[in-house]
Amino acid sequence: MLKITIILSLLVIAPWQVNAQIYKWVDKDGNTYFSQTPPPDLNEEMEELKIGVQPKKTGQSSVDTHLDGAWWSMTSKGVRTLFLRDNGLFNIHQWSARQGQLDTLFSGRWREEGKEIILTYTRDSKKPQNSAMVGISEKLTVSSLNHTRMSVIDPDNRTQHYLRVNGDKFAKSYHKELMMGDWYDSKGKRLELSWGEFKVAEHNHSKSLAEGNWDLINGELTLEYVFDFEKHPQGKIGTKQSWRVETLDENKMILRHTHNPILWHFTKKS
Asked: Which end of the chain has fewer beta carbons closer than 10 Å to its terminal beta carbon, N or C?
């Protein structure tokens, strides 16, 4: 059942427009939703709602998590990233499997208006063929958002799903802290575990082969790959792996795959 935690009403869209009623709620998984109509089971949880007028303050975000960051998505043309910078600039990158790198397709300025992301395109000197987009503004409507996932509806009414690396909601524990650091396997790979985020790279190189979000619950390590170019040369978005922690101390870690008889041996280097 949908868990309603908050509702926002009478959100001012613009000073010359009639005030519109926008409902905002968060489900049990932490996803934030916006709609002009309430969720279907609103009455069942009415006693849990706090209803009131909450005017939007200048500079206040209309969502519970910040939008800035590198958002990864799988499109019909391959892997793309929407990089929303906190200085108001954005870039859209396309993964080039042939060159093994991200190429900039578009750039410009972005801003947030209510539940919409407004992208205004500017010229990219490296891509003169994109000059037709210069000065054009595009609206992306945010239909759901949490600290690692976002879904938007584009002007053609198509829904695009995004993932990003973000450890904001990572909960602290002794075993999680013990796992943090740089772990090296026997196949030349390095697994970096930081605050809710992970990275896979080669032993002596800083370039990421894969990155994502991780968590440890009841002795099971979950790796959610935001992007993976290690096992998928063309790129892969959103795959998950689960590993049972067989051995863990300050210098050694052994993981067992939950679905296959595979062991992953690591040693830690200080």
From this structure: C
Q: What residue has token string 């970096």?
A: 192
**Domain-by-domain residue ranges, the chain?**
1-52, 69-163, 174-268
The DSSP output letter for 48 is G
- Are the beta carbons of 198 and 191 closer than 8 angstroms? yes
Give the C-alpha distances (Å, rounded to integers) separating 260 from 90, 231, 236, 238.
41, 17, 21, 20
- Cα distance between residue 204 and residue 265, in whole Å: 18
Other beta carbons within 10 Å of 212 = 26
Give me the CATH code for the 174-268 domain, please: 2.40.128.280
**DSSP labels for 134-201?**
TT-EEEEEEEEE-SSEEEEE-TTS-EEEEE----TTPPP-HHHHHH-EEEE-TTSEEEEE-SSEEEEE
- Indicate the Cα dihedral angle 179, 181, 187, 189, nearest 10°: 130
Comparing CA positions, the residue from 258, 259, 236 lying closest to residue 245 is: 258
What digits encode the pLDDT tens for the residues 186-236? 999 999 999 999 999 999 888 889 999 999 999 999 999 999 998 888 889
Contact 86, 70 (CB under 8 A): no
Q: Which tokens hold the place of 190?
A: 């390095």
What's the predicted TM-score (pTM) here? 0.71
